[in-house]
Amino acid sequence: MPKHEKNDVELIRTWTLSTAATLGSAVRAKGILQELQSRVPAASKKSLAVDGTDIVLAMPASEKAVFNAAAAIVAKAMEDVEALPVIPREIQDILTIKVGERHRWLADGRLPSAGTRTVRLNGRARRITFHVFDPKVVEDLLDRGAVDQWREDDAEAKAENRRKAAYKAKLTRSLKKAKKTGGDKPDEPATTLRGWEEFDMDGLLR
């Protein structure tokens, strides 16, 4: 076989991501790929790809040593792939929630944080810090349908707050109206005041 034909023969290795790893999310699968790419040498990053739920490492046969080194790193990382923290865009896809909901439920404690992570944006000097989440906790929330219950609770709380606000506004308007139309109350007749008769008998008003 000619030399150039041998170089075209690819070395391929595949690892299948479990449901516990992806939590049924293509966004999560892509996030796992990016995590794996960050661990292999820079020259091997583009040789890693995700195909559905499969992580695929493919290189020309001429790069066998580089291939084996990258494969060893990926194989080691795959042992703990199910425990990788869930990042914001992944949890939003897994639980089908919006950014605002994530922030609100994180703030009130319903969505527990597993800590924070700081990364540098590609091609930029700026770093960003964000909360990450325990995949086991996320899986439990998904299985329990917790998000549906949280949305119902939020809707009820919002309706109750509106009722309270409407009542408060109505009460305020009533008080303002009474103040404008009521005027000052007339003084009580002198004879109704306690001790007035004794005071008058002493002649102190004469």
Question: Your description of this structure?
Answer:
The protein folds into two domains: 1-82, Gyrase A, domain 2, CATH 3.30.1360; 85-179, no CATH class. Helix content is 53%, strand content 14%. The protein is elongated. The chain has helices at residues 3-8, 19-22, 26-39, 64-78, 88-95, 99-107, 135-144, 146-182, 196-201, and strands at residues 10-16, 48-51, 54-60, 116-120, 127-131. Helix 3 runs antiparallel to helix 5. The protein is of the alpha+beta class and 206 residues long.
Q: How are the strands of the largest sheet arranged?
A: 1-3-2
How far is the N terminus from the C terminus? 137 Å
Q: Tell me, briefly, the overall form.
A: elongated
Q: Count up the domains.
A: 2
User: How helix-rich are the residues, as a percent range?
Assistant: 40-55%
Mean pLDDT: 86
What value does the Rg take, in angstroms? 35 Å
- Which percent range describes the beta-strand content? 5-15%
Structural features:
206 residues; alpha+beta; Gyrase A, domain 2; 2 domains; three-stranded antiparallel beta sheet; 9 helices; 14% strand; elongated
Quick synopsis:
Helix content is about 55%, strand content about 15%. The chain is α+β, with helices and mostly antiparallel strands and about 210 residues long.
Topology readout:
Blueprint: H1 3-8, E1 10-16, H2 19-22, H3 26-39, E2 48-51, E3 54-60, H4 64-78, H5 88-95, H6 99-107, E4 116-120, E5 127-131, H7 135-144, H8 146-182, H9 196-201
Antiparallel strand pairs: 1-3, 2-3, 4-5
Helix pairs in contact: 3-5
